Each structure stands twice: as structure tokens, then as C-alpha cells.
Amino acid sequence: MKISLIETKEINKYDGLIVPIYEDKLELKEMDIPLEKLKETKRFEGKAGKTYKMTISSGDKLVEVVLVGLGKKDDISYRKLLNTLADGFRSLKKENIKNMALIFNNDNIEINDINIKAAVESIMMADYKFDDYKTDKEESEEISLDILVDNASNFEDVKKEAMILANSNIIARNLVNQPANIMNPLKLSEDVKKLGEEKGFEVEVLGLSEIKELKMDAYLSVAKASAIEPKFIIMRYKGDSENEDILGYVGKGLTYDSGGLSIKPTSGMVTMKSDMGGAAAVIGAMCAISEAKVKRNVVSVVAACENMIAGNSYRPGDIINSMGGKTIFIGNTDAEGRLTLIDAMNYIVTKENVNKVLDIATLTGAAIYCTGDAASAAISNDSEFFMDLDNSFKLSGEQIWRMPIFDEYKELIKHEEADLTNTAGNPGTVTAGLFVGEFNGDLPWIHVDIAGTAFAKKGNGILSKGGTGIAVRPLYYLAKN
Ligand code: BES
Ligand code: ZN
Ligand code: ZN
């Protein structure tokens, strides 16, 4: 896909046009489209999320036009903008149109940073499709999209940032979409090394012996039944050498989750390549942060491993240790993510000197009951830090919802025979998060559960089926702002 900002009024050089229009500003000065008639006949009224495709004749050419309804001007959000523009693009792509323009130089929609950014991000993300393993792919011509504006040079920087963000989101989607027989801990660590070299962040990978030396017993308990060794991946980006502060990100990196001895049914297992969605989010964010040269120090870690079954599997009923020294009763081997996260959390807090920390994970099926696929669920011990994250999500058009931490919940993670239990009961999303929070060293901390948002059952708007690259852009903004 090639995206350019172009100053032209010659719309008949394109085969397809995307025309965004507000419901309460239903006018187009420079194009001859019968908007009044369309409204009268209720075919197109500019209502949010509605698109209308028509063919117009311009000169000696037929041009496909998709009108994209933005709804009322006061109700527009970045999220709506992204998804409706993506729908418009999808409808032209379906017609196999390769040469298209997005009309911004009318009075239909303001030419400003936000709208240009939304256009670039939305269309790049909507164009993504995972087909690495299709052997009958046709080589198809690259799509070229011109965004028609009045003053292109003013928006080149915004376009560049939007491209970095969309590309980083796609990097995360690709990592998640690779099947687990390919994307194992070793492959993940190799891919991160390459990304670090390409984008400009430092990568250190610890192998089995170093993980043992660090006494990451909880992480090792999960990893040990796999034929493939765990890899502890550390990514460091120093964007602000005058400042000591370091923001820490921890991503869950289960390249596959079979459930272990508490085995999942096939229906639950079949998408478990996505159990490294948290890792993909922090890796994608590191790519964006370093490519855009954000002025902030950020360290991210991923305790990559597989939750498998073998004679040496950890068992329900076991009591294990952790790097932080707390003992844990294993009620269920499928609650493995939190065990890998606590050692990663303990590591980043005690060894990397971060002063704020966020962990992100496809952690609980319960999160799907809380917020579905519309929002990621979160808990936090610091309202100011959470507000920064909430704003970062809004800037990206993604949604997050903070769950409460009542005193009663804090009791649930305790165990009679061990310090903690990995199966603390309801509300499962909050108690899983609190378990991880036990190791946050009392720093400002946010836990984000993306079990409902990391993997899409079908493609829609900016999302394609499979990995969503969720939280990559919010984690970029959190570092930047
Ligand atoms: N990886 C799963 C959570 C998950 C479920 C992610 C569905 C995406 C979609 C996690 O490791 C898990 O299995 N959690 C258990 C915990 C329970 C045994 C306490 C769950 O949520 O059922
Ligand atoms: Zn599990
Ligand atoms: Zn899991």
C-alpha cells in the first residue's frame, strides 16, 4: 500500500473515491453528487457507520464513489473515524480498485492532524491480511491511496507518525498470527532481536541457565514441560538520557497455552497461539517508540514459554516458589500466565530500576465476560497513571475499562498452605491482576487484561480476523505523553 498526501482537484484520475461526510453537514461543493436526493430517499444520510457506494461518470471515466457517514459532528470519536474510514476503504478494495483517493479537500471534513492521522492509520490497518501460508496467492498490484488535501507539506510529520503506528500495530498482528508450531519462544526472541536492530532498541535474551540463576521458579514451572526452552526477552530503549526515569512494560508471552495438565478443550486451545498477545503489544510498542524517537526511557520484558504437557509438568496441587520469594499453591495449571508474569514483574522492578510499571496479558477468560471484545479490562493502584493510560487509549481509538479493587478481593489470592494461590476465584480478572500486583514493588502500576481484545473472530473496520495488535498504539502514547 502506498499512501500519499496530494494537492489536486482532479478527481477523475482515480478509479475509486472515499468521501467522508457528516450527517449534519451534508454538502459537497466540488463534486457533483446528489446528496439531497440521497437524503430524501434515505439511501444515504451521513449516519455514523453507514456507507453508500455509487458509480459516477467523470469525463470519459467511471469512478466508484463510497460515501462514508461520520454521524453528527459533535459525536465523532477517533474510534468511529477509524472504523468508518476503514469500511469505506474495504468497500473499494472489494471491487479490486487499486488507484483510489480519499477526499479531504472539500468542506466535508476538516483537514487537521487528527483526521489525517486517522485516515492513514485506518486504511493501513484495514488493508492488512494474514496469508503467509496460502500457497495459491495471486500476486496483486499494490494499492495506491492519495489523500487529497490543500496543504500537504503541513501534514507530512503526522503522516509519518501514523505510518509508524499502523506498521507497529501490524508487526504485533503478525507475531500473534504466526501459528505456535512456528512462533515458539526461540523464534519470538530471534524476531525481537531483528526488530531491535531495525528500529533501534537494545535486546538481551536470557536462556534456560540464566533464568535458573535468577530463580524464576514460577516461570520455570510453567515452561518446563515444553520441548522448547523458555527465552526471557529484555528490550531497552533510552530516549531521554537526561532523565533517570524508566517506564516498564511486561507482556505475557505464552507462545502456546494448552492448559497443561488442567488441559483445555480443543475449542479453547485452537486460538491459543494468541496467548502472547501481551508480548506482541509491548514489542509493537517498543518498535513504535524507538522508530518515532520518543523522548522517554522504556524497558519491556517478556517471559516467553509454552504451557505444555509432559512427565515433568507442574501439577494442580503443587506448591512452587517464585523469584520474589513468595510461595504459590497451584490450583489449576491453566492459570499459568500470572506465574510467568510475576517473575517478569519481579525482574523488571528489582533489576531494571523502572519507576512505573504496566503489565499486559491475555490473562483470563473472565475478561471476556467483563468487557467482551469492545474494551480491555484493567486494574491499577494509581489513578493518575491510569488516567494517562485511559487518555492514551482514547487517542488511539481503543477502549479500556478500570475494574474496582475491593478489600475482599485482596483476601482471595491468599492460601492456607502457601503465601498465594493461582486460582483465587471471582472476579477472576481482578484476582488474577491482584496476584501479579503482589510483585509490583509498590510502584505505580497498571494491569491490562486483553483476553477479549487481542484476537478477533472476524474482520471488521480496522481489524482483520486474528491478531488485533491491540494496545500497541496506546502503549506508544503512554510513553510519549
Ligand atoms: N490464556 C488463558 C486466558 C484466555 C482465555 C485468553 C480465552 C484468551 C481467550 C489463561 O491462561 C487461562 O486459561 N486462564 C484461566 C484461568 C483459570 C483457570 C483460573 C481462565 O480464564 O479460564
Ligand atoms: Zn491458561
Ligand atoms: Zn494463558
List the helices and strands and how they pair.
Blueprint: E1 2-6, E2 16-21, H1 35-40, E3 51-58, E4 61-69, H2 78-94, E5 99-103, H3 113-126, E6 144-148, H4 156-177, H5 185-199, E7 202-206, H6 208-213, H7 217-223, E8 231-238, E9 247-257, H8 266-269, H9 277-291, E10 297-307, E11 319-320, E12 328-329, H10 337-351, E13 356-361, H11 366-371, E14 376-380, H12 383-396, E15 400-402, H13 407-412, E16 420-421, H14 428-437, E17 445-449, E18 455-456, E19 466-467, H15 472-480
Parallel strand pairs: 1-6, 2-4, 2-5, 5-6, 9-10, 9-13, 12-16, 13-17, 14-15
Antiparallel strand pairs: 3-4, 7-8, 8-10, 11-12, 14-17, 18-19
This protein binds ligand BES and zinc ion (2 copies).
Ligand BES binds at residues 257, 275, 332, 334-337, 362-366, 423, 428, 451.
Distance between the termini: 29 Å
**What is the oligomeric state here?**
single chain
Largest sheet: 8 strands, mixed
Distinct ligand kinds: ligand BES, zinc ion
CATH topological fold name of the largest domain: Aminopeptidase
Please identify, by name, the CATH architecture of the largest domain: 3-Layer(aba) Sandwich
Low-confidence segments, ≥5 residues, pLDDT <50?
A: none
Structure annotation, total helices: 15
Spatial arrangement of strands, main beta sheet: 7-8-10-9-13-17-14-15
What would you say about this model in short?
The protein has two domains: 2-149, 3-Layer(aba) Sandwich (Leucine Aminopeptidase, subunit E, domain 1), CATH 3.40.220.10; 164-480, Aminopeptidase.
